[in-house]
Structure formats: structure tokens, C-alpha cells
Design brief:
It is a single chain. This protein is of the alpha/beta class. The protein is built from 12 helices and 10 strands. The strands form 3 sheets. It has a 5-stranded parallel sheet with strand order 4-7-8-9-10. A 3-stranded parallel sheet has the order 1-2-3. The chain has a two-stranded antiparallel sheet with strand order 5-6. The N and C termini lie far apart (about 60 Å).
Length: about 350
């Protein structure tokens, strides 16, 4: 088989994950371009400033893995990680205990308890459980999650049919304000996931994996879900909200900017959307510099050193046309945003410190 650009070194580098394949047999899922541009590439081993990761989860399976995570955090300059558990009850209590050896390095957030939501009085029970979790150590609530059918990111009981702007949610959101518990919420998915999975979709492989089925009865679409978030933010001005993943408005950051302009109680994390924003560096940089006071760093991609360093590479450098196939399923080249020092300080930890100290 003949490949015009397929040196032995490239073949060896991708052994086991990809291979040189003739174009007549090439499948998009096997497309692993290697940049041919001889441009500077910067290695960023640790963040330029201390970081609070505002979007992480309960990845470790043992105390030893928690210890290993701490070591990685030390080596990459992650000062603290927010563990979004979705959880209440016994599960939440067990996670508080799991991370209690490193109280200054982890904040453990709870979920909402939707048990008995089809019965009268469930909200009072949910508020009581929220208060209990707070007393147990919960610093915030999240990650709530609604991809169209309701608040399904909850353990042990999902909130089918309940959207964040449902009147039944208001007592919970008001209690969050009273207890100074910020609310982290994922609404919708990015626009690619609502498009046809065909040759016109430029995020095809990733969008096909996460495609939203709008034929399901009662499901809300992207704009309806963002509207539900806006309603909740507007109707609960004393509650602090963090919209996960740029509110899934990566293809139209202006929509998020309009919300920032209207609602001072709204923030957004940048977790797990590096591959969506890095292909448009000038547009993204201008947005992030303008709204530097409203964005917080997040990962949502595990605990590896390489993962953290990829995020720093994108945020801190001006490097051009590189790929990270191990972490991102798109086929777009990535570009560094080269954010200013002031913006990095705010996104890495300044805004997060303000949110969790309010």
C-alpha cells in the first residue's frame, strides 16, 4: 500500500490506534491526520498560575487512586478540584468520606433528591435533603443535567420531566441562594449534535456519538433548553449558576455573551469543550478576554497529566495546527488561544475563588 505522506515514524507513533490507509478504503473514524507544518510547538507541563478545576467527577476507584490524583494535581499546579457528584443520601455521604483526607484540595458538591417527585410534598423532602447535604459538607450543587427530557443527572433518583425553570424547582434554587451553594448545570448539547449525521456535519464522528434524538416525545431542543436556563437565572437572581461547557453554545458564543450581559449571577465553565473552541482561536480569544470575569476553568476529562497539559497548551500558547486524537473525536486542527495573563488568572482560579467564597 502506498501513502504519499506516511513516514515510518508516523506509523510507529500511531501503532495500535491508527494506521496508514489508502484513501480508497479510508473510513472517517480511522482518519488521524498528522500535522505537516513545521511550526513551534510548546510543552506546558504545569499551569502558569494555580488552578481550581470547577468541573471534575469521582474518577478514582480507591484511596490509592485519590493519592495518585493529588500527585498529578501537584505536578500540574491544580490547587483544588470540584467533585460534581450528582448525588444525595448514602452515596453522597460516602463520597464526602472518600475525599475527606484532602479537604483543602477537593470540594464535594451534591445533587438534588427527586425521590417521590410524582407525589405531593416531594419538594419539602428535597429541600430537607439539600440542607442535610450542606451540613455534611456540600459546598454547591451539581452537576445538574438536562439534555431535553429533564434533570436526569441525579443519583439515586433522576428528575424525569423536570426542567430547571419548572416552578417546583424554585424552592430548591432559593434554598441554594440561602445556603450560598452555587448551582452547576449542564443544559443541551452543542449544535453539531442536533444536525444530521451526514457529510455536511463538520463535527460528524463526535456529533454522531452524542447525537440528540429530537423524535423522543416531550424532548426540548437546544434553544428551548438554553431558554430554560435563562428563565431560572432570571427568576432566581440571588442564586449563582455555572453553565457547564459554555452552556453548550460553542458554535455561537454570542448567545452566551448575551446572557452574561443580562444576568450577573450567571457564570460558565469551559470544561470538555477545548476541541470545540480551539479551531476558532481569534473568535474564542476575543470572547474569553471580554468575559474573563464570568468564566471558570474545568476539565471533565479524567485525571491524567496529559489531559491537564493539553488544556494548558490550548489556553496559554499561540501554537498552531496541532492535533490531540487521544482526547478529541473531531478531525479539526487545534490552535492555542494565547490568553492574557490577567484573563488566565481569572479563569484559572480568580472567578472560582469568588464564587465559592460568596
Amino acid at each position: 500500500m502506498y501513502c504519499r505522506i506516511c513516514p515510518l515514524a508516523v506509523m510507529l507513533a500511531f501503532a495500535g490506534t491508527a494506521f496508514c490507509q489508502d484513501i480508497t478504503d479510508l473510513k472517517l473514524k480511522n482518519f488521524r491526520p498528522v500535522s505537516i507544518y513545521n511550526t513551534p510547538q510548546t510543552s506546558v507541563d504545569k499551569a502558569k498560575y494555580p488552578v481550581i478545576d470547577f468541573h471534575s467527577h469521582d474518577y478514582p476507584k480507591s484511596d490509592a487512586e485519590v493519592d495518585a490524583w493529588i500527585k498529578t494535581m501537584d505536578e500540574t499546579n491544580i490547587a483544588k478540584s470540584i467533585i460534581l457528584t450528582y448525588s444525595t443520601g448514602v452515596r453522597f455521604d460516602s463520597l464526602v468520606a472518600k475525599y475527606s483526607r484532602y479537604k483543602n484540595r477537593f470540594d464535594v458538591w451534591c445533587g438534588f433528591d427527586y425521590t417521590g417527585q410524582d407525589k405531593q410534598g416531594w419538594v419539602a423532602h428535597a429541600v430537607a435533603e439539600l440542607e442535610r447535604c450542606h451540613a455534611k459538607g456540600a459546598k454547591g450543587v451539581g452537576e445538574l443535567g438536562d439534555k431535553g427530557l429533564g434533570e436526569l443527572y441525579s443519583k439515586p433518583t433522576p428528575g424525569y420531566g423536570l426542567h430547571i425553570d419548572d416552578p417546583q424547582m424554585k424552592p430548591l434554587l432559593e434554598k441554594c441562594a440561602e445556603l450560598h451553594m452555587p448551582v452547576s448545570i449542564h443544559v443541551a448539547e452543542d449544535a453539531w449534535m442536533y444536525l444530521n449525521a451526514d457529510s455536511t456535519n463538520d463535527g460528524l464522528m463526535n456529533s454522531a456519538t452524542w447525537k440528540v434524538d429530537l423524535t423522543k416525545p416531550g424532548i426540548l431542543n437546544h434553544d428551548q433548553l438554553v431558554a430554560s436556563l435563562e428563565n431560572a437565572v432570571k427568576n432566581n437572581p440571588k442564586t449563582t449558576f455555572i453553565a457547564c461547557h459554555f452552556a453548550n453554545c460553542c458554535s455561537n458564543l454570542g448567545a452566551l455573551g448575551r446572557l452574561f450581559d443580562k444576568y450577573p449571577n450567571l457564570y460558565a465553565d469551559i470544561a470538555a469543550r477545548y476541541a470545540e473552541i480551539a479551531p476558532v482561536p481569534r473568535y474564542t480569544k476575543a470572547f474569553m478576554e471580554k468575559y474573563a470575569d464570568r468564566l471558570v476553568y474545568g476539565t471533565d476529562m479524567g485525571t491524567s497529566e496529559k489531559m491537564y497539559r493539553i488544556t494548558f497548551h490550548i489556553l496559554e500558547t499561540a501554537d498552531e495546527h496541532f492535533y490531540e486524537h487521544d482526547y478529541f473525536s473531531y478531525h479539526w486542527p487545534l490552535y492555542g488561544l494565547n490568553l492574557s495573563a490577567g484573563t488566565l488568572k481569572k479563569i484559572y482560579s480568580g472567578n472560582a475563588s469568588h464564587i465559592i467564597s460568596e
